[in-house]
Write a structure and sequence with these properties.
With 543 residues, this protein is an alpha/beta fold. It folds into three domains: 261 residues, 3-Layer(aba) Sandwich (Rossmann fold), CATH 3.40.50.10490; 172 residues, Glucose-6-phosphate isomerase like protein, domain 1 (Rossmann fold), CATH 3.40.50.10490; 40 residues. The chain is 48% helix and 10% strand. The termini are far apart. It has a six-stranded mixed beta sheet, sandwiched between helices. Strands 4-3-5-6-7 form a five-stranded parallel beta sheet, with helices on both faces. The protein contains 21 helices and eleven strands.
């Protein structure tokens, strides 16, 4: 097929639609009853990650039909194109070379560019860690404040926060992303101008939030007596000329290629704060884990291929079961920022309504991604997962070996398994009534309470077991999700590497900001004009 937008009219899509009806009246419990070895059979392992997908509404027939759908969408060819450096980002006519950052580049010139960029980044990080870089007053740098947002923030923030026990004592690494100056003020209250360096992380070096915070940082440095601002700044950008014009010296500018999307940029120079906080060796381990998953993705058959299984089962749930949301539930405190990271990766990549060829789609793409660290979520939103009116597929994430106190790890693991099992098994009303009657309740009381306590079950989930909470396993996990996103985008025929909606929002904010500063606002709608007037009326919020 050359028109990916017609995938929903393909024979493979129609076969899956017909197959979906065969599940009427068949629950996950029924599938396990019919195949007692289902749990041992429905799994795949690679790069230190064990994926149990047995608690999905799927059979061998389902996987075979999904394989046919992948063939119809030419997934093998599209996978080869990604790794070969073809312009898979068609709206911007760019390749998406993030896998090459941790593996083999598609050509020698790009390979040299990547190696040189990484070498410069790691050398600068090591110099900071060794105290060789000093501020304008000659003092050693003790704090690094990373100013970025979105893909320039979420990846580095996730990895640094994942391994606090391995972070360098100095320099301490901090993050500030929000345009609300309170975020940066909170960080700066723990820093001293003479010993602080700021990292301005913006691929375009025009990001409003980053440059606004950079201006605040510059004012803070000057107020602290620092006049040579360049000695307290590092830039990470694909536009070095803009960083230079801002006042940053060439030896403090780290570059990345245009072919690296922001949400895929952790593996590039954008990983600088990881290398500073955790060291070049740990950054290299992170890359190695991702590379192992890349290799697995390229070579494993579909039924043993973690990203393909995850991606195709997501398509199955979204388009044929009409589940529009997914919860990501890590039972590792160090991975508490993973849901935030995956929100951007998955929703910015898959939130598209037209195909690569520009034709409008007639089916759903993407899902709402959300979640939190567990077991916190069990005391918050799991009530909706278990007894709510909508089905929310979930990804449970846990480690096989203890990453914390051994007894607490046992309890974490037990809770993870208990939640996924309860979502699947539920709690039967008739059995509850019997228990309540046996406990001395009247028939009416038992019937009433049983209705409130019943849990429907039959709610799908994956469980991903990491061999250990280590950088390599985290790298593999993030690469797994990247490739799952690509699989879904290929099936739907959409571009996973642009974000024009985000760009429009930036432009709109810039124009409204000018209107708030006095530019003509007459062209705006009445709601926006009224809200502008509200802002201009000092003290009106107390009315």
């Amino acid at each position: 097929m050359t028109q990916r937008s017609s995938i929903d009219s393909s024979a493979a899509w129609r076969a899956l639609s017909a197959h979906r009806t065969s599940f009427a009246g068949t629950t996950l419990n029924d599938l396990f009853a019919a195949d007692p070895a289902r749990g041992e059979r429905c799994h795949a392992t690679a790069a230190g990650i064990y994926l149990d997908y047995s608690k999905n509404h799927c059979t061998d027939t389902t996987l075979g039909l999904l394989e046919e759908l992948a063939a119809t969408a030419e997934l093998p060819r599209q996978l080869a194109a990604l790794f070969a450096g073809a312009p898979v980002n068609r709206s911007e006519q760019r390749a998406a070379l993030h896998p090459a950052l941790r593996g083999v580049a598609p050509d020698a010139a790009i390979g040299r560019e990547m190696e040189q960029s990484r070498a410069r980044m790691l050398a600068l990080a090591q110099a900071l860690r060794a105290g060789e870089i000093r501020g304008a007053t000659g003092q050693v740098i003790t704090d690094l404040v990373h100013l970025g947002i979105g893909g320039s923030d979420l990846g580095p923030r996730l990895v640094v926060s994942a391994f606090p026990e391995r972070c360098a004592v100095s320099p301490r690494v901090h993050f500030a992303a929000n345009l609300d100056s309170s975020a940066l003020a909170g960080v700066l209250s723990r820093c001293v101008p003479a010993t602080t360096v700021f990292v301005l992380a913006s691929k375009s070096f025009s990001t409003l939030e980053t440059l606004s915070n950079a201006d605040l940082a510059q004012r803070w440095l000057r107020a602290g007596g620092i006049t040579d601002i360049g000695k307290h700044c590092v830039a990470i950008t694909s536009k070095p000329e803009r960083a230079r014009a801002w006042g940053i010296d060439d030896d403090r500018i780290l570059t990345l290629g245009e072919w690296i999307g922001g949400r895929y940029s952790l593996w590039s120079a954008m990983g600088f704060p990881v290398a500073v906080a955790l060291g070049p060796d740990i950054f290299t381990e992170l890359l190695a884990g991702a590379q192992a998953m890349d290799q697995h993705f390229r070579t494993a058959s579909l039924r043993t291929n973690l990203p393909m299984l995850h991606g195709l089962l997501s398509v199955w749930q979204i388009n044929f079961w009409h589940h529009g949301t997914r919860a990501v539930l890590p039972y590792v405190h160090g991975l508490r920022h993973l849901p935030d990271y995956l929100q951007q990766l998955m929703m910015e990549s898959l939130g598209k309504r037209v195909a690569q060829d520009g034709s409008e789609l007639a089916f759903q793409t993407g899902a709402i991604i959300w979640g939190s660290e567990e077991t916190n979520g069990q005391h918050s939103f799991h009530q909706l997962l278990l007894q709510g009116t909508q089905t929310v597929p979930a990804d449970f994430i846990v480690t096989a070996t203890p990453h914390c106190d051994a007894e607490q790890h046992r309890l974490l693991y037990a809770n993870c398994l208990a939640q996924s099992r309860t979502l699947m098994m539920g709690q039967d009303r008739a059995a509850l009534e019997k228990e309540l009657l046996a406990a001395g309740h009247s028939g009416a009381e038992a019937a009433f309470l049983a209705r409130h306590r019943e849990v429907p079950g039959d709610r799908p989930s994956n469980t991903l077991v990491l061999a250990a909470h280590e950088p390599a396993c985290l790298g593999a996990l993030l690469a797994l999700y990247e490739h799952s996103v690509y699989v879904q985008s290929v099936i739907w025929g959409i571009n996973a590497f642009d974000q024009w909606g985000v760009e429009l929002g930036k432009q709109a904010a810039s124009a409204i900001g000018a209107a708030l500063a006095g530019a003509d606002a007459s062209a705006y709608d009445s709601s926006t004009r009224a809200l502008m007037a509200r802002w201009n009326s000092a003290g009106s919020c107390s009315d």
